[in-house]
Write the structure tokens for this entry.
Amino acid sequence: MSENIPIIRLENISKSYQEGVDAIDNLSLEVDKGEFVFVVGPSGSGKSTLIKLLLKEIEPTGGQIFMRGKSIASLRRRQISKYRREIGVVFQNFKLLNDRNVFENVALAQRVIGVSKWNMNRNVASILSLVGLTEKILANPSELSGGEQQRVALARALVNRPSILLADEPTGNLDPKNARAMMELLDDVNKLGTTVIVVTHNPDVVDEMKKRVIVMQNGKVLSDKVKGGYAYERY
Amino acid sequence: MKGISVLLYSIKQGIKNLRHNGLFTLASVGTISACLFLFGIFYFIVSNFQYMVKNAETSVGITVFFNENIGDEAIASIGDKIRARGEVSEVIFVSADEAWEKFKGEVFAGREEEIAQTFGDDNPLVDSASYEVYLSDVSEQGALSEYIKSIDGVREVKGSIDAATGLTNVNKLIGYVSAAIIIILLAVSIFLINTTISTGVSVRKEEISIMRLVGATDLFIKMPFIIEGILIGIIGAALPLAVLYFMYGRIVNFVGERFSVLSGILIFLEEGTVFSVLVPICVCLGVGIGYIGSIWTLRRHVRV
Ligand SMILES: Nc1ncnc2c1ncn2[C@@H]1O[C@H](COP(=O)(O)OP(=O)(O)OP(=O)(O)O)[C@@H](O)[C@H]1O
Ligand SMILES: [Mg+2]
């Protein structure tokens, strides 16, 4: 029964930052548990806004978002914290803290959920080795390249083993080789059962990976194909 | 387990905040210290004053003289009436002979022979038998005097009423002045803690918003700041307490030597008695100021 309920369902979602301008315009979509979804579309089409809505960082101006069939609109402050613990996010601008090293940046996510020190050390070390940053563990984010910072952000998003991973342009600063490696990493995470939603501008990986692709334009879904390609430019 | 690691982290962060905002921390600790130091000094004065007044009260009494040739029975019945009053703690009869002996001893000490020659066996204070009445509460003295005066057979009532009410009034005045100063300093401390914590919050705005987005609860975010406030309060209480403890014995000795004439009145409270009250009060005040200051600030500043 619960297997049939989509893990995420958006129902006629709208979001306007200013009166009359819709960043998201009456958008409905469903994502099933364990899916891997690309979200593509031109700049300003509402991709980051969609991510923010899913994290409940901002509130929709219309419509409802359901997580496992339950509306997230009426969650109380405490429940919002719980809800966010199920979601790992790689933010478009990373949101790393430059006053502490890589380890502490990733550990922050574990501290927030009250993991014991011993488990935290183990989890952080293993996730940093997964993203290939073991050697940079004591470096400050400001001393890292853009691609390395992106991987720190990914490590922080993954360290709590979320059931949903939202990644906003995780390959934006990577060369083709590293971009491919990053996507393979996300694919691995997905194979372990995490639902993954990736916003990207990288046509090569999208075409190559043959995943579901949602194309957005002007806050609407332009196309949604199960094994799609990076096609919005043609429209 | 979970709670402990969160608490330890919060304490670490709290200490980090303290050092980060060095100057504000110093200002807050300083004001709380000043506040509690003054509180301590006033407490020394008020508590010792009260103690001395209490002691003095047992020696300050009313002397009651009778009409001439009143007779022993009448004197006894006056005594009963006085004893029946609730505020009276003790009534002592001093006969004319005892009064004369005491007078001779006090006034003509060393000239006993001279006195014996002059007065022989006569008692010049023949009508000076009296009751010495002691009260459990000095402030009742006026009312009691009035009552005793109204009893038949009483010629005169002598009391040290002015001295007694004077003592109580001075004590009250010190209490009011100290309360006013302490309230002002309390307000300043809370204001400074507010500034300290809000600076800390604005410095860590980015961190707070990230913590929110990765699922931190309000409590987790606020805890380091609350602990910071409480630590400021504890340090702000410990410093003046240490200084006051160091000072107390010295002050007592100094005042005792300087006013050795008054050694009969200047009986000070024991160090242990004073500090067994002062330490818990100061620590509670310090922690309370820190806690209230930080909670109040967080309520207004931490909303993401
Ligand atoms: N905080 C904000 N205040 C006002 N307008 C905003 C805000 N954030 C986004 N917008 C507007 O909403 C629209 C969608 O923005 P969004 O960031 O979702 O685009 P995007 O698809 O992520 O673009 P990009 O590919 O460049 O990251 C844009 O027109 C943008 O100007
Ligand atoms: Mg974006």
Summary: Residues 176-191 of chain A form the longest helix (16 residues). The pocket of magnesium ion (ligand 2) is lined by residues A 47-48, 92, 168 (CB under 6 Å). Residues 127 and 155 of chain A are 6 Å apart (CA to CA).
